[in-house]
């Protein structure tokens, strides 16, 4: 394997593993905000106990997210030095914003969220939780600004072989940015709400503290019923934007080879096997005229086919792109259906909560749904990043020109190291999460007096 | 004001801001890493000691480490060429740093979740991660000062900077423990402080001589008019502060040793900044050559420069929320 392939492999490995964690941090901290607000507003102790219970999962998850995020901050310099030099004036700037505005907010208040009960008032605690949620969402914003700019670079010009920023407003608000930011943020929210609903369903299925978990189940469901349809709408908008701004990517994810003639609609393949060597699909199941509707929202809209692009400018790994896109979209619809159906079931059983507990298959479906949003997020990122190839900065810099001049052996060694760390981190997380699941919520927890300052000169230890 | 003046003002402002972030990182995460290094010296049966030590940094280490992330991002944006050159040239060292920070960060949280059988294992991972992070940062310092030179002499120099950073962090960690703990552990921390101080001062002297002899910094920058006087002035302050730390430890002060150690680091890093300037990577890359265009530097100044005071404010608030001595974890 070449140093380029290895560097790409390392980037894929570290980002695919890392993104699993922040999406739950973003949504679970937002969920905790809602829970703590309910606690502050209603004074119902159930919400306090929920806050304490879910925050333990947040801590485990946050830990893995933080440590797996470290490589991402530095690997642009280690593995993609030429890209860093070429695009650093905008891209590095934005990563700097993320570090200063988002991480510090998260890290600065996380200690108070985890260890501050009883040391600060519940109002201040809610504020700290809100700041962690806000910090993680600001992080989504800047990271997606940086990434969307790679997809649709704007506001820059080449000066002395480097990209200089000529217009910050158009660079930040580049064409892909509104879709990139919102689609990712909603993906994160959906993930956390599915996790909360799934874990709550698990306890209800086991008939353990069912009343307690009915609260979190219903709350997550309400939030999902709002978020899931919006996410589908955002997905449709992102697709429309991709066909307009990155036509080769659009054609690749739909296995679309030939531009439709004027006055006709492009056919949409529901399923197919794209074959790059043949520059055609091996087989496909087509819906006539449908792709023009999906891609351009008009019956005869022109959709460029892949054969309009030189093979060197086409994205690689077409079947991966094609099916990753379908899995992502499929999960989106599946989760929306499940959320609506379950909301209806909850509504029907509103006078007898036990009726919901009797719907064991429905509860089991939620437990089994836990991995789905994670799979969808990974597939979405594959579509986004592999679909942008062969470019690192779309239309401006090719990935092969971006890589550092570092020996392949060094890159291989670091890949092995990361793989080993990730196995240990994932295994440890699952062991501890299982313990957390087995232990369950502490229904005897009483909120500390507000604020407790028995001895101002000592740090009480609370775990 | 003409463009050249604005440009030069901006890049120097960013050189200063990066220096500020670096010193904030080194002092705050320095004591975290120092506590980790010292935890390796607490034997298997001293679990209570380790609990107290780790508890003393439990709520703040994450925010402290974040200064490094902010520094990395700011360097990437303000001086992309330096970010690219340093990180790709120090590939192995950076990977070691990343690995060590993963070990430290995961272990400090997972030790709480782990069963009693595995606590010692996680504690050792935490200590080892802290030690390796200090070593990696020592290598970066040594490589930077020698202008990325290869060769046996440079290797020896890097070896000394590594020992210097490890013992310097141990000094910060030990004096932090003097401040945060009481009783037996505090007395032990005082002893650690003295040992670490001696090692740090020793390394600092050797590194200074070494820099003069083998580094482009010593042969070029230090001979610029006025520079050596500044360095001598800083050296006098450092010597006085070192004496104060010893005095304060002997007197049984709680806060003095840590405050003194912080000033010691501050003078060392001002010395480093004075020595590097106007280069970022001595002999390879000047501040001016590495800097982004003015448009980027202004925009970053608006974004990061404005939030920096806010960042510092809530950091201080966080420290205040967890001020005072750590009391026993057993309950």
UniProtKB/TrEMBL annotation, chain A:
Q: Which residues cross the membrane?
A: 20-41, 53-74, 94-117, 124-145, 184-205, 212-234, 320-341, 362-383, 411-433
List the GO cellular component terms.
cytochrome complex; plasma membrane
GO MF, any single term:
heme binding
Q: Spell out the subcellular localization from the entry.
A: Cell inner membrane; Cell membrane
Membrane topology qualifier: Multi-pass membrane protein
Highest taxon in the source lineage: Bacteria
Q: Among its keywords, does the record have Iron? A: yes
Q: Please report which protein family the annotation says this sequence is part of.
A: Belongs to the cytochrome ubiquinol oxidase subunit 1 family.
Entry protein name: Cytochrome ubiquinol oxidase subunit I
Naturally occurring in which organism (per UniProt): Dyella choica
Organism ancestry: Bacteria, Pseudomonadati, Pseudomonadota, Gammaproteobacteria, Lysobacterales
UniProtKB/TrEMBL annotation, chain B:
Cellular component, GO annotation: cytochrome complex; plasma membrane
Q: Which InterPro entries match?
A: Cyt-d_oxidase_su2 (IPR003317)
Q: Where in the cell is it found?
A: Cell membrane
- Where on the tree of life does the source sit, at the highest rank? Bacteria
- Identify the keywords attached in UniProt to this record, alphabetized: Cell membrane, Membrane, Transmembrane, Transmembrane helix
Report membrane topology.
Multi-pass membrane protein
Q: Enumerate the transmembrane spans.
A: 12-41, 90-108, 120-141, 153-178, 190-214, 226-247, 259-277, 297-317
What does the record list as GO biological process?
aerobic electron transport chain
One GO molecular-function entry: electron transfer activity
Assigned protein family? Belongs to the cytochrome ubiquinol oxidase subunit 2 family.
Give the PANTHER family listed for this entry. CYTOCHROME BD2 SUBUNIT II
Protein name stated in the entry: Cytochrome d ubiquinol oxidase subunit II
From what organism does this protein derive? Dyella choica
Lineage here is:
Bacteria, Pseudomonadati, Pseudomonadota, Gammaproteobacteria, Lysobacterales
């Amino acid at each position: 394997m070449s140093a380029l392939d290895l560097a790409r492999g390392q980037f894929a490995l570290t980002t695919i593993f890392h993104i699993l964690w922040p999406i739950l941090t973003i949504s679970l901290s937002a969920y905790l905000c809602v829970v703590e607000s309910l606690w502050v507003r209603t004074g119902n102790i159930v919400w306090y106990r929920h806050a304490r219970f879910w925050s333990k999962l947040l801590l485990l998850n946050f830990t893995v997210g933080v440590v797996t995020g470290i490589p991402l901050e530095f690997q642009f310099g280690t593995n993609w030095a030429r890209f860093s030099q070429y695009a650093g004036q905008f891209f590095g700037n934005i990563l700097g914003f993320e570090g200063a505005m988002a991480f510090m907010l998260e890290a600065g208040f996380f200690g108070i969220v985890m260890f501050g009960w009883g040391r600060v008032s519940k109002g201040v605690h809610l504020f700290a939780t809100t700041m962690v949620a806000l910090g993680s969402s600001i992080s989504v914003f800047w990271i997606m600004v940086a990434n969307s700019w790679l997809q649709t670079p704007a506001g820059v010009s080449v000066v002395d072989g480097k990209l200089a920023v000529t217009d910050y407003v158009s660079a930040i608000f580049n064409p892909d940015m509104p879709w990139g930011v919102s689609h990712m943020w909603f993906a994160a929210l959906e993930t956390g709400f599915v996790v909360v609903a799934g874990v709550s369903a698990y306890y209800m299925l086991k008939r353990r503290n069912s009343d307690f978990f009915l609260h979190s189940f219903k709350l997550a469901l309400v939030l999902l019923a709002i978020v899931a349809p919006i996410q589908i709408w955002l997905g449709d908008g992102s697709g429309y934007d991709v066909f307009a701004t990155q036509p080769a990517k659009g054609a690749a994810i739909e296995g679309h080879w030939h531009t439709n003639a004027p006055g006709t609609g492009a056919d949409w393949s529901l399923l197919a096997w794209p074959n790059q060597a043949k520059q055609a699909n091996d087989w496909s199941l087509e819906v006539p005229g449908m792709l023009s509707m999906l891609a351009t929202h008009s019956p005869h809209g022109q959709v460029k086919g892949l054969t309009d692009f030189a093979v060197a400018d086409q994205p690689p790994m077409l079947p991966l792109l094609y099916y990753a896109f379908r899995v992502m979209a499929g999960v989106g619809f599946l989760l929306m259906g499940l959320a609506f159906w379950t909301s209806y079931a909850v509504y029907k059983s509103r006078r007898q909560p036990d009726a919901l507990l009797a719907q064991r298959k429905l509860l089991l479906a939620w437990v089994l749904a836990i991995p789905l949003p994670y799979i969808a997020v990974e597939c979405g990122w594959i579509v986004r990043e592999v679909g942008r190839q062969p470019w690192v900065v779309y239309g401006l810099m090719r990935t092969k020109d971006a890589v550092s001049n570092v020996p392949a052996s060094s890159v291989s060694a670091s890949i092995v190291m990361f793989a080993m760390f990730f196995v240990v981190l994932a295994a440890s997380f699952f062991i501890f999460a299982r313990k957390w699941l087995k232990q369950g919520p502490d229904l005897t927890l009483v909120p500390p007096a507000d604020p407790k300052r028995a001895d101002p000169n000592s740090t009480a230890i609370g775990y | 004001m003409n463009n050249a003046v604005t440009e030069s003002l901006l890049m120097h402002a960013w050189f200063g801001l990066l220096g500020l972030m670096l010193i904030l990182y080194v002092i705050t995460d320095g004591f975290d890493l120092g506590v980790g290094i010292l935890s390796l010296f607490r034997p298997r049966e001293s679990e209570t000691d380790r609990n107290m030590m780790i508890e003393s940094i439990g709520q703040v280490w994450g925010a402290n480490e974040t200064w490094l992330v902010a520094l990395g991002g700011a360097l990437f944006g303000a001086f992309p060429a330096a970010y690219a050159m340093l990180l790709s040239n120090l590939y192995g060292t950076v990977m070691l740093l990343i690995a060590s920070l993963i070990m430290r960060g995961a272990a400090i949280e997972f030790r709480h979740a782990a069963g009693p059988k595995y606590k010692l294992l996680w504690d050792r991972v935490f200590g080892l991660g802290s030690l390796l992070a200090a070593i990696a940062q020592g290598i970066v310092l040594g490589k930077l000062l020698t202008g990325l030179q290869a060769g046996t002499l440079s290797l020896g120099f890097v070896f000394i900077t590594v020992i210097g950073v490890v013992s310097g962090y141990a000094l910060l960690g030990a004096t932090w423990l003097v401040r945060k703990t009481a009783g037996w552990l505090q007395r032990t921390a005082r002893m650690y402080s003295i040992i670490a101080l001696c090692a740090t001062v020793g390394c600092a002297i050797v590194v200074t001589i070494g820099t003069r002899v083998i580094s482009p910094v010593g042969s070029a920058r230090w001979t610029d008019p006025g520079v050596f006087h500044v360095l001598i002035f800083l050296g006098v302050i450092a010597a006085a502060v070192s004496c104060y730390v010893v005095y304060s430890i002997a007197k049984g002060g709680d806060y003095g040793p840590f405050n003194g150690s912080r000033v010691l680091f501050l003078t060392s890093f001002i010395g480093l900044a004075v020595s590097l300037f106007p280069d970022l990577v001595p002999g390879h890359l000047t501040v001016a050559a590495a800097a982004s265009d003015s448009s980027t530097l202004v925009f970053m100044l608006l974004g990061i420069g404005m939030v920096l005071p806010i960042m510092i404010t809530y950091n201080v608030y966080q420290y205040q929320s967890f001020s005072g001595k750590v009391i026993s974890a057993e309950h």
